[in-house]
Amino acid sequence: MSTVSRRALVSVSDKTGLEDFVKGLTELGFEILSTGGTRRFLQQAGIPVIDVTSYTGFPEIMDGRVKTLHPKVHGAILGRPTLPGDATAIEQHGIIPFQLVVVNLYPFQQTVARPDVTFDEAVENIDIGGPSMVRSAAKNHAHVAIVTQPQQYAEVLQQLRSGALDEAYRRRLAAAAFEMTATYDRAISDYLAKVVSDNSESSFGPRLTLSFRLQQTLRYGENPHQRAAFYVEDHPTPGTLATARQLNGKELSYNNLLDLDAARAAVLDFRQPAASVIKHNNPCGLAIAESLADAFHKAYEGDPVSAFGSIIGLNRVVDAATAEAMCAPGRFIEAVIAPGYDADALEILTTKPKWKANVRLMQVEFTDADRGAPDYRRVSGGLLVQDRDDLLQSDAGWQVVTKRAPSQAELADLKFAWAVCRHVKSNAIVFAKDGMLLGAGAGQMSRLDSSIIAAFKAGERSQGGVVASDAFFPFRDGIDAAAKAGIRSAIQPGGSKNDAEVIAACDQHGIAMMFTGMRHFRH
Ligand code: 5GP
Fold first, then answer.
1. H or E element, residue 331
2. Residue 409 resides in a domain
3. CA-to-CA distance for 267 and 273, rounded, in angstroms?
4. Is 1 inside a domain boundary?
5. Are residues 336 and 439 in the same domain?
6. pLDDT per residue over 287-325, tens digit each?
């Protein structure tokens, strides 16, 4: 047996702060054992080090894949010298217990973050012996202290100097160590899952790892008896709700966040100035115009009764004219999301209306960097994952299926109505005219009911307007309801067994109809 009372095993890839730390350890009477690279580094710094291979009597083999995976190493970490059985094994096999293990791992995360990384490089950077030692030492924290980060060095030295590296402190180190190995393994599994899914037909891999952090606790959920919080992705994409800044108003609620997200999405795709008016996650108003103020006015007037207390989405920096329009008498707005507010607009919105102190003004970059991101929805016992229905629309494959083709003005309205339709809950029927949503039938269990509601909402204004349906009309009744309301053109995916009957109904009413070939259910 050696006369040295304490031994530390040091095997690290990241050598930050190592020299001072190990000098400190030797001053405290530790004997240091190290693996090849670490030993050379410490010896160059003039610190006496024993190579772990001379202790095990077994060389490092296979390009360092096997360095410390040896019973004399793991026995020295896992052994409990106070237990008679362990003490006998220690004696019999010439094991010399370690009291301190200092390990950090091959830089797997940094390696796979490099854009030019090869698969073989990634695999070679999976550390095997390191995590094994970390886990052994953390398990045996009753006897061993495990140090896994350079940031811990100073405190560990201080604890050792004051003789206070006690069990409670070792337990804390063990918890940090297991957190580190868990994060490390998660990074490996994420990387491999991604490689597997990139190579398979389905875009979703066999396993999904989601990581979110708490951004904000919310007063309550959809209802006051529900607890709630807003968790965000670790690195949220610019332009997402997670990156929005609040410039004014009351604390955001759970429902505000949902509606703000819908408000932004509803106007994001329009090139012209556009405004959305959201209630209960559906647009009750949506419009495009030459100016943002006009778009807002048209959107609010689409359904002014429903618009009271709404959430507004605007796809341009808010100017004074738009702010004035929002403050017009009788209008009440809960929240706004826009790419910005000019100084005058901000002044108006925060001083003029009765609701100035409460209105939540949110600013977020309007980019589509997040387009195509996955969409998640919890169901009991699981999570449904899909591509978000937010790909840019193309009218390349649209077909006129009726005798009459839509006029240019009708075609413009059809495009608008189709773009609006996918932001409305199914069954969705949208009546529109002149770039303005006139009536939405949303979330009804029958398409006919949605048609009747949309017609009722639009009233007389739908004369000469267009109708969009998020999925095919299964029967002619929806078209008959639209015709009765004065609709002149229709747009829908098509694809029903009854298409012929529906087309015949359109021809009979003189309605021009287009098939898009794409459905936009929104459940
Ligand atoms: P060194 O630079 O001292 O040669 O190697 C230090 C690194 O090797 C540390 O990051 C440590 O986690 C890792 N390591 C220690 N033992 C083994 C082993 O048996 N196999 C593998 N693959 N890595 C090890």
1. none
2. yes
3. 8
4. no
5. no
6. 999 999 999 999 999 999 999 999 999 999 999 999 999
Pocket, ligand 1, Cβ cutoff 6 A: 11-13, 34-38, 64-69, 103-106, 127-130
* Atom 24 of ligand 1: nearest residue by CA position: 129
Q: What is the ipTM of this complex?
A: 0.92
Q: How far apart are CA 418 and CA 472, in angstroms?
A: 13
Catalytic residue, from 15, 23, 70, 280: name it. Answer: 280
Q: Is the CB of residue 427 less than 8 Å from the CB of residue 396?
A: no
- For residue 297, indicate whether it is catalytic: no
Considering the chain, what is the average pLDDT of its residues? 94
Report the b/e string of 418-454 with b at 16+ CB within 10 A. Answer: bbbbbbbbbbbbbbbbbbbbbbbbbbbeebbbbbbbb
Indicate which CATH number applies to the domain containing 446.
3.40.140.20
pTM: 0.68
What is the domain extent for residue 320? 246-363
Same domain assignment for residues 20 and 124: yes
Q: Which of 195, 229, 264 is a domain's end point?
A: 195
Output the pLDDT for position 202: 57
Whether 143 is a known active-site residue: answer: no
Say which of 15, 70, 72, 139 is annotated catalytic: 139
Ligand 1 atom 13: the closest Cα is on which residue? 130
Token pair recorded at residue 14: 């990241």
Split into its structural domains, the chain has a count of 3
CA of 35 to the centre of ligand 1 (A): 7
Rounded-to-integer distance, Cα 295 and Cα 275, Å: 6
Is residue 47 domain-shared with residue 110, that is, in the same domain?
Answer: yes
pLDDT band (50, 70, 90) for residue 3: very low
Closest residue (by CA) to atom 2 of ligand 1? 37
Indicate whether 158 belongs to any domain.
yes
240 located within any domain: no
**Could you read off the pLDDT of 422-432 as tens digits, one per residue?**
999 999 999 99
pLDDT at 258: 97
For 172-187, how does the pLDDT look when each residue is reduced to its tens digit (9 = 90+)? 999 999 999 999 998 9
